[in-house]
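Hi team,

Below is the intake form for Amidohydrolase from Aquibium carbonis. Please confirm the fields before the structure is written into the shared record.

FORM ID: S-0412
PROTEIN: Amidohydrolase
ORGANISM: Aquibium carbonis
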Amino acid sequence: MNHGFTNADIAELTAWRRKLHENPEISGEEEGTAREVVAFLADTAPDRVLTRMGGHGVAVVFDSGAPGPTLLFRSELDALPIEELSDAPHRSRVPGKSHMCGHDGHTAILAAMARQLARQRPKTGRVVLMFQPAEETGEGAAGVIADPRFGEIQPDFAFSLHNLPGTPLSHVRLKSGVVNCASRGMRIVLSGKTAHSSMPETGVSPMMAVSRLMPALTGLSAGHFSRDDFALVTVCHVSMGEAVFGIAPGRAEIFCTLRTRLDERMDDLVAAAEALVHREEIAGLSASVDYHEIFLASLNDPDATARLRAALDAEGIVHDEAELPMRASEDFGRFGHGAKSAMLFLGSGETHPQLHNPDYDFPDDLIPIGARIFLRVARTMLG
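The structure came back. Fields below:
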């Protein structure tokens, strides 16, 4: 099966990936990146291009016109609010923002697929290349799926990948079942009454409530990670009052992350955490809770996983199930609620800087490797 790339392809895709790296846009701001995708793929002559999906998402469709399944392959457009610490010529030009998760590389992998699909279109069914916004906040996949036009490209199968530092270059981690945790950010606001610091008894301070809640919330952590009853609560940020000496505080905020292997377990953890919070509503102190960056658990469908495994074997790429599932979250799992979905993790090197580290950079050698895997799936399923 021929889906090799020319030297010119690799050079152009690498240069384009580095251009994306130089011009990062964080979640919800990916308008320029989306325009760049549409422009770069214009000469592949897709049958349809849908823009502004779920925000700044772009869906590029290659349609055979013959009956067959619809296969969706997803990458992410967004960068992170992290200052890059690098001497690379293509380092970020945007202060405080950078592609420290490799989404620029994942996007280049789908662009590589588009080149080959233009040269040899699928014989049956459709391929949808989904360039998704806002993965880092957990809002992107939900926004794309909620877009009324998503029904027009509803996939039967959905596939994705993520690069994985600490794993040998091009070595793949893949398994069926749970691969990423459910998680959500919980913001707790405790409201009382400020007072002069010389007369704290005339106000209502949240200090004692904060001191009780932090260990109580982390105390909800339970179970070994390999078990379905696993739960983890991490306190991430606490603020109380003003940074002055003359005011006794009347307000505090606690940010914590709730994490479970399964969505059903998350419901129990949320209920337990909220019960602890509302227990502090005493003598003039009120409490409120809201949630941010909500990620569902990502589960790999057995059939979709088998398709990826067969492609890896056909391409001679080493794979195993080590290090899975992961504690980290990933919003790709939402696509699995309407399609058979699976995600693989592509090694970016045993000593490669970790994701979200300020010196991270996507390994360009993975661009043709990731594309080969996905193209093998598409050719095998659609011809």
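SUMMARY LINE: Residues 182-295 form a domain with the Alpha-Beta Plaits fold (CATH 3.30.70.360).

Thanks, M.
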